[in-house]
Design goal:
213 residues, alpha/beta, Rossmann fold, 2 domains, 7-stranded mixed sheet, two-stranded antiparallel ribbon, 11 strands, globular, binds zinc ion
Length: 213
């Protein structure tokens, strides 16, 4: 009887690792798989509009599964795992003494309503919980419901994102901003946001992505 009780407790409180199906207590990825994923990452930088963008993965394998899970498949609990991985890589560079704000790339309100949440906000909140950095979702809004970018080439992407973002200068704290996106492919999204911020003389910027594609 007791055994059944404990099995039941296990069933309620433990989750199965998304990758190896072994028990994972707190996170959805077990410690062993999380270590394996971390071992595959390394710092990569690109410059977009003169701003250094840092990322840690190429968009494939486990990290792709985690991103796709939180983005498309309602696996909100992946946000914590992804944030944990990022802080290990970005700790010194982005989340050190200088106080900054995290700016998750915004989703148009219509798309957010349809998807029910912006996964970048979820990951940002988890980053904030670890680092103490504030998340600012008021500074930049996506005012154009843009088409998904993945089918478009670079020129079409630029056209698609033209005037897509709007900055609310009143929401600017004066702090350094960490613009945070999941994947950077051609860099056009980052570029549009950087340029929109520059129109308001907001120049103390850095970029953070999980993966480059
Ligand atoms: Zn595992």
């Amino acid at each position: 009887m007791l055994k059944i009780f404990y099995t039941l407790l296990d069933y309620i409180f433990y989750k199965k690792c998304y990758f190896c199906a072994k028990k994972a207590k707190k996170n959805i990825t077990c410690d062993k798989c999380l270590d394996k994923i971390k071992a595959k990452g390394s710092k990569k930088t690109r410059k977009i509009s003169g701003i250094k963008i840092e990322g840690y993965y190429f968009y494939k394998d486990e990290i792709q599964k985690l991103i796709r899970g939180v983005k498309y498949h309602d696996k909100k609990e992946f946000a914590g795992d992804i944030a944990g991985i990022l802080v290990e890589f970005a700790g010194n560079e982005h989340f050190s003494a200088e106080n900054a704000e995290i700016i998750p790339v915004p989703m148009h309100h219509k798309r957010q309503k349809k998807r029910r949440y912006n996964h970048m906000e979820l990951i940002s909140e988890e980053l904030s919980a670890i680092t103490g950095y504030k998340v600012n979702t008021e500074l930049i809004k996506r005012i154009k419901n843009t088409k998904p970018q993945y089918k478009l080439n670079q020129t079409e992407r630029r056209k698609n994102l033209k005037d897509a973002f709007k900055v609310n200068p009143a929401a600017y704290s004066g702090k350094k901003l960490i613009i945070f996106d999941d994947i950077s492919t051609t860099g056009v999204t980052m570029e549009s946001i950087i340029e929109e911020l520059r129109k308001h003389n907001i120049n103390n910027l850095t970029g953070l992505v999980i993966a480059f594609a």
